[in-house]
# Entry
Amino acid sequence: MQRRFEDFWPFWTAARRFPFETGEWVPAIDMYEQDDKYVVKAELPGMKKEDVDVSISGDRLTIKGEKKAETEVKEENYYRSERSYGNFLRSIDLPSDADSDKIDASYDDGILEVTIPKTAAVKPKKIAVSAKKKGESSK
# Structure
């Protein structure tokens, strides 16, 4: 099952699941679809909005930045540090119906939220279905 998941989501690697083992840091993201938009949320704990850059090139959304290390701890009983710091970059291919001209990004309490509207031409349209009575013909 894990192999099939990794085949479907190629960016999912052991480094992303256990970044403290490799020294890499990659923020976790959620991406979901709503009726009229796509939403991408990234966890960026301890970061300032000035340290985050969101850009779009073609159909690729890129989130990059730098999580800066806190001041050095000068305690003798310091045994382990698993928090990661440094530069990161996440790129996401957007669906063909994403309207890249109207993307909006906001940052609050360590969560970056990027909203990507869908183009008007591909929004689902509800079509009413009427029932015919027996013996009626369609014209």
About this structure: The longest strand covers residues 60-67. Residues 9-23 have pLDDT under 50 and may be disordered.
